[in-house]
């Protein structure tokens, strides 16, 4: 193998398909290179990590060690202490596993482009995982411009690679569903890696303080505005535990009751998916096996994980305006929101009032407190939360910006493709027109009466009270 195309060819022979691989830097291999380098960024795990698998296959062919490099970037756009504390757990666990497998492990603190450029000088070739939102994509592009060796990006964190699922932006779940259904089975296999390659341990370099979580994090000079979410520890083992608990106790109720905030049927896996601590494929396979063993229906969960989630990636991949309001919206939603922009608002809250859960509505406040204290909002309440921000803010544009701000600041699963499509959905993305109303126009309406009619919410409010350690929830 002498260049980027040979590397690609080798991966194709090893079972990858063309949609799994993108050559970001087309050039010759460094024949003096001492190792193959894998830049781990979005996929912080050893198990079912296609990028790791590809890098190890190339190292095997070149008879070189594999070195994995992870860069903590304290200035990560929008990242704060909460996100780093969760991410740390995953990177720590996985770095130990990778070293046990004989790979060199480098942990750096800086900017990925600078660090990877330095590390690439001794490398034969570089492999990276996939980043879908803008900053992650631009680092990969920038890195490709800076280095002198081949750079291959491997599709990770999706079941079906985004370009294999569809070659265009999809209008809604129903337009993507069929395309995914036709493909998904061929992608439902766990990817392993080669560990019988030359030992890479002599390249390992890890900061001395890395084993001591809080000392290490405190030295990073992070944005400390949001504290650690104590209900969630990160990492593959924690993700696997959540999955097992979900399968044993909740998935069978999920089909009928997933929306009910009192019953707490959801999996809570989104933070782990966001940081790549577990692969969606592993979850899908486990869920499928469980459903056939126990003979239970998993249609709704399957649809959320394999269609709705993959639709979000399709959205941010093909629509470069995914974070620009109102450009990312379909025309009908743009028009109707513009027509109703100046409708009188009965409530018009400031950012501070929203952020401190000080609205008149105890349900909305509870959702916001859940976000602040737990780092995640229950599925149905998250929709209510987003819809009410639209209703109680001066303009739809301000509501969009505010929703993103709050979601991405406090949610452990924030800054994800799902964040943009979830919030976008509140404004009509991936939805259809409904009966026209004030403020909402033809976008879907949600109201408190509906919420109270459907659910009791007593247990939900109790739970949030407990989490937020308050005697009374504000509002009402
Ligand atoms: C206003 C708003 C903001 C949102 N922000 C985010 C966000 O920042 N990050 C995030 O991951 N999700 C977001 N979502 C989508 C959804 O609410 C979460 O994915 C879900 O609540 C995560 O909890 P869970 O893992 O317990 O979900 P489960 O119900 O157990 O579902 C399992 C997995 O399926 C996927 N999934 C479930 N519901 C959806 C959905 N509606 N769209 C896409 N994928 C879905 C997720 O990956 C989830 O982890 C948002 C939705 C709304 C309405």
UniProtKB/TrEMBL annotation:
<dbReference type="InterPro" id="IPR014729">
    <property type="entry name" value="Rossmann-like_a/b/a_fold"/>
</dbReference>
<keyword id="KW-0238">DNA-binding</keyword>
<dbReference type="GO" id="GO:0003677">
    <property type="term" value="F:DNA binding"/>
</dbReference>
<keyword id="KW-0274">FAD</keyword>
<dbReference type="Pfam" id="PF00875">
    <property type="entry name" value="DNA_photolyase"/>
</dbReference>
<dbReference type="InterPro" id="IPR036155">
    <property type="entry name" value="Crypto/Photolyase_N_sf"/>
</dbReference>
<dbReference type="InterPro" id="IPR036134">
    <property type="entry name" value="Crypto/Photolyase_FAD-like_sf"/>
</dbReference>
<keyword id="KW-0456">Lyase</keyword>
<keyword id="KW-0234">DNA repair</keyword>
<dbReference type="InterPro" id="IPR052219">
    <property type="entry name" value="Photolyase_Class-2"/>
</dbReference>
<dbReference type="GO" id="GO:0003904">
    <property type="term" value="F:deoxyribodipyrimidine photo-lyase activity"/>
</dbReference>
<keyword id="KW-0227">DNA damage</keyword>
<feature type="domain" description="Photolyase/cryptochrome alpha/beta">
    <location>
        <begin position="34"/>
        <end position="162"/>
    </location>
</feature>
<dbReference type="InterPro" id="IPR006050">
    <property type="entry name" value="DNA_photolyase_N"/>
</dbReference>
<protein>
    <recommendedName>
        <fullName>Deoxyribodipyrimidine photo-lyase</fullName>
        <ecNumber>4.1.99.3</ecNumber>
    </recommendedName>
</protein>
<comment type="similarity">
    <text>Belongs to the DNA photolyase class-2 family.</text>
</comment>
<keyword id="KW-0285">Flavoprotein</keyword>
<dbReference type="GO" id="GO:0000719">
    <property type="term" value="P:photoreactive repair"/>
</dbReference>
